[in-house]
Amino acid sequence: MPVYDHLCKSCETVTESIQPINKKSIKCPHCGKRAVRIISCNGVYTGNDDATWLKSVRDVVEKNSGKPHAEEFLKNPTRTNLKNWMEKENLRNLEPGEGNRDPTPWKPDARFTDKLRQKHMERNAISIYR
Ligand SMILES: [Zn+2]
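Above: query sequence and zinc ion SMILES. Below: predicted holo structure tokens.
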């Protein structure tokens, strides 16, 4: 089962958890409220075209955007189409340690607060050097 990040909108904690693809939310381990699944742009493993998580990435792709690269990935969620979609959306994976050298290597979604982004970066930095 793939590893997902879950965001609790109540306490703004991001929790990493291994969950089935169809499980869209978990109980926040910090406050007990509902934490919804979000996608992490860090360390996305793209080594396997058949990976089940590839299909789950479709959840975060803007539907009916009319963008050919989005349509193509939604229709055919392969590693190549994911890479193409990420490039066109100006998304990329961080290099190992990059988050530590540059505190703002990627622009988070506007819905993310700076505080949340900071927590997210700190957590990822910890996982890189663990
Ligand atoms: Zn919480």
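Strands lie at 3-8, 14-18, 25-27, 34-38.
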